[in-house]
Amino acid sequence: MLLGVRIVRRRWAVVLSLALSLAPRVSSAEAGAAAAPPPGVRAVSLREAIALAEKRNPDLLAARARVEAARAAASVPRAQWLPTVGATAQLIGSTINNSTATILSNPRVDLPRIGATHISPEPNLTPYASTLVAVGVRQQIFDFGRIAAQTAAAMAQADLERTRAEGAKLDVALRVTEAYWAVRAARSVAQAADEGATRASAHRDAARASVEAGLRTQVDLARAEAEVARFEVAKVRAEGALAAAQAVFAAVVGVPEAALDASGAQDEEEALGPLETLLERGREGSAEVQEAQARVDVAKAETRAAAAQMRPDLFLTAAISGRAGGATPSSGSTVGGHGFAPLVPNWNVGVVLSVPIYDPVLAARRDALREVEGAREAELQATRVMQEAAVRQAYLGLVAARQALGALERAVRAARFSHEQAEARFKAGLGTMLELVDAEALRVEAEVERAVGGFEVARARAALERAAAEVR
Question: d(Cα 258, Cα 201) in Å, to the nearest integer?
């Protein structure tokens, strides 16, 4: 009998530890603060919690911010259709062999060669000054599809971020669901521990009365006192686990409160459908598959954009400039200021066709992106296989959890009946305190295991819904 009681005690300790682990671990300071449930904790249903999380969860807020940033980046290539305006100012000292006006090329202003030519049979190494002030504008006329390809690549990246955000929403819904049912399970464990402590106190009082009447020994009373202390400790730990689960629930949902409770209202569960339907959903429409498909689309769009960089470019250019050179021209008059004052005005308008006949860097980038595209295709196929396996695993886990819960329900009924019989025998003086302790531990253990089993069923169903969820 003593061996049986020790075994039951060890099993009860293991089950209580499992129940306490339903809520994620917190620091010792947080655990001390959560020793008692905060007063006035708001209770919400699972549907309300998910709706709140979609508005407040920090991960979803960050995901939406990334989507908006990607959409803003997608508008950048289109800006190439807008005119660009640039300016330059130059002061140069150089020799003037065959040129009396020297300017440096720059990417902001397109300037033609304008200037008198100094012709001398002998090279002249004397430096002269040249100045330039110019303002120019450039307008894209036709790009042969280059900008459109760049825009498509940026939009594909934005679609990838949107798909990731949808997956993040499903992940948050899964975490909220797990936290919700963890609170429910922790409350059931706390209730079982509280009821066990109440019954243990009643058994101790009965044992004390029997000892005072001379019907039982002090050993029975000491045993009963030890059981009361053990159940009181279990009650305190269960209440702490409940408070911690409520705190985690609030953090996952993203509400400003320190704790959030799970209401007892049951949301109507939708039928999940047959396994084949779930497998098809996971293989074609799940968040993981949709993200992998979006990665393929991004790779294809980037390959097309890289290839489009090798297409011609047609644009309009115009500029207004003032310039001067300090050297004496071969004909005409000398400009005052010795080249330090840009006094000679000019303007120009032109249409330029730029054709990149061959650029090895662009060609190498295009070929590399084609290889990336093939890798993304292979990843997509692998994701389909893995997601189908995940759905199948989650489905079998749900089936097993439901079967286990049915067995746990029967165990609870049997344990309660056994406890009632042991209690009746103890009150009639036919049973011993060890029998009653054994029956009491078995009953609480069964009730806690049923609470954990209910949590496992809810978590398995949530995991299956997440694995087969379609991104809309």
Answer: 33
Number of domains, the chain: 2
Please, which residues bridge with residue 86 across strands?
A: 136
pTM summary value: 0.75
Alpha-carbon distance 117 to 129, whole Å?
15
My answer on whether 57 and 118 are in the same domain is no
Higher per-residue pLDDT: 469 or 193: 193
In a domain, 159, yes or no: yes
**Residues 278, 283, 288, 294: is their CA dihedral positive or negative?**
negative
**Band (26; pLDDT cuts 50, 70, 90):** very low
pLDDT on residue 441:
84
Write down the pLDDT at residue 122.
66
For residue 67, name the pLDDT band (cuts at 50, 70, 90).
Answer: very high
Give the structural domain span for 134: 81-142+312-355
The string of DSSP codes covering 210-230 is HHHTTSS-HHHHHHHHHHHHH
- Higher pLDDT: 109 or 3? It is 109
Same domain, 59 and 158: yes
Task: Count the neighbouring beta carbons within 10 Å of the beta carbon of residue 43.
Answer: 14
Listed in sequence order, the DSSP H helices in 213-357 are: 218-253, 275-284, 287-308
Do 98 and 157 lie in one domain? The reply is no
Helix (H, G, I), strand (E, B) or coil at 348: strand
Secondary structure (3-state) at 71: helix
